[in-house]
Design a protein that fits this description.
The protein has about 290 residues and is of the alpha+beta class. About 60% of the residues lie in helices and about 10% in strands. The chain contains eleven helices and five strands; from the N terminus they run αααααααβαββαββαα. Strands 1-2-3-5-4 form a five-stranded mixed β-sheet. It is globular and about 60 Å long. It starts with 15 loop residues before the first helix and ends in a 10-residue tail after the last helix.
Amino acid sequence: MLEIAAPADHETQTSPEDLEILFKDARDAFYDLPFDDDFVDFCRSNNIDPEDTAQPRYWEAAADFADQVSAKAREAGEDERRIAVRELFAATPDYIYQQNIARHNRRDYADQDKYQNAKERVSYYNCLIRYVAEQCPDMQASALTKHLVGIANISVENEHLREASSEAIRTTVRGAQHELAFGQLLAHSGREFRGASTEEDLEGVDYVVVNLDGSIELIDVKASQNTIESRGASNRPYIRGSDGKLTMQSLVTDRELHDRFFVSESLAEQRGVTLGRLLDDISTPGNQVVWAG
């Protein structure tokens, strides 16, 4: 399982032509999956009908199988970009089914183990998107979205979920854009920080930041200021929950991202200074906006 830390230095460039080759390779691997003897054996060993693609368990098996294949490919020293994009494509149908389960409130969902499994799988898929963006920093978010939506459309047989998958994927990709850009800003903020662990991510945390006084901030990054305003902070890009976690707007706009997952280094440096000052303000007693939710 992957965990995303700080954004990379973006030294590896991937041309649009190379990206299309990666996308085609991953798509072809996805199409070939039902005919892979190892995958068929994997399904049967888990009591799953290898021909019943209408069952969510089939696609859960596909995601698990892809994870195992990725581990072996890494051991063999294969191209990390190719590995990551292939795994992301293979995990997409499972994400659509699991995201539908995870949207339910825990106390309203009868099968708690199934609910927890869905939350973990959704978290992992989000991690995969960020990881693919790390490996291919020049990738257009719209191009990735188009391919992932295409995978969902040909694999998810539940009509309601298939129709909802486009918006779910677009929202997830956009969230990844703003989370990664916020990490760029943090790198210029003068703060020590790290990406959230799997356990922290399940609690809605994206970054763990060390304040200048040594205290810790758990930050949930949002793409839109509307989320902050809906919780009661109309004039500030942050609000603190009753659990102590900070919900913060990413401080960048969709336009400034230019359909990418990272902003320019000049903008990251400028906004990083702003973010550092904002974190100073947040940590000052009396300046913390708290909501009761």
